[in-house]
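Weekly sync, protein design subgroup
Attendees: M.S., D.O., the rotation student, P.L. (late)

Item 1: inverse folding check
M.S. brought a backbone from last month's batch and wanted to see whether the design step gives back something sensible before we order anything. D.O. pointed out we never logged the input encoding, so this time it goes straight into the notes. Structure tokens as presented (229 positions):
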């Protein structure tokens, strides 16, 4: 490899590391994400490795990033705030619904004991498997299937994380939570996206609205609008 190529690669790494720190300091911390364990998990994952090469320069922007097929990586601030409210512990089993290229699963794997990464899109499923392997993430397994059905056979879960907006949460999915388990998502309520925390206590599911959030939809969770006369 030419010396000039090495120098260019070092420069790119420095730039992306600086962009990651800027994201933490200017997007996460000002929005009350200050848990150092969570910050460390975000800092450890190169977000630019999980987006198309043409978008790597904006991988740390404060917006959803398109990864193809009408799917997106969630805006960093919303993603981090939802993680913060989920209170993920070291031994937790997490179901990551709509993992896309695997970025969210890589970060969650830095907090949890194990992550089940669910993806419905063939290309994204393959991308997630490859990227998680390439990044050396050993405690996350990618599963292909319908997002709204979850992965009951691997549960129950301490945390379920929906990587996008939903109209409704199927009971079959909520029942995959352990007693005391938490689900975080962005739910459309009255046409407005609201970050939501659902906590299970026996067969009771308590919902708490956390903050307003505008993120891309997750496929499979849309409620068909009926006709009105």
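Designed sequence read out in the meeting:
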């Amino acid at each position: 490899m030419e010396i000039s190529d090495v120098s260019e690669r070092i420069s790119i790494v420095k730039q992306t590391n600086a962009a990651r720190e800027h994201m933490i300091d200017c997007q996460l911390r000002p929005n009350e994400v200050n848990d150092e364990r969570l910050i460390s998990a975000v800092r450890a994952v190169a977000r630019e490795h999980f987006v198309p090469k043409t978008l790597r320069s904006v991988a740390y922007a404060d917006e959803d990033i398109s990864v193809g097929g009408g799917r997106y990586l969630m805006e960093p601030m919303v993603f981090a705030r939802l993680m913060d409210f989920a209170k993920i512990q070291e031994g937790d089993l997490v179901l990551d619904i709509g993992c896309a290229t695997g970025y969210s699963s890589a970060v969650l794997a830095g907090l949890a004991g194990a992550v089940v990464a669910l993806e419905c899109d063939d290309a994204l499923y393959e991308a997630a498997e490859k990227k998680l392997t390439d990044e050396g993430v050993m405690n996350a397994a990618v599963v292909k299937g319908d997002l709204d059905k979850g992965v009951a056979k691997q549960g129950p879960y301490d945390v379920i994380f929906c990587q996008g907006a939903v109209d409704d949460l199927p009971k079959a999915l909520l029942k995959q939570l352990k007693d005391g388990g938490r689900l975080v998502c962005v739910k459309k309520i009255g046409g407005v996206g609201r970050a939501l925390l659902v906590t299970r206590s026996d067969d009771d599911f308590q919902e708490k609205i956390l903050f307003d959030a505008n993120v891309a939809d997750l496929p499979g969770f849309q409620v068909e609008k009926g006709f009105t006369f």
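Discussion: The chain has a mean pLDDT of 92. The chain has six helices and nine strands.
Action: P.L. to compare against the previous round before Friday.
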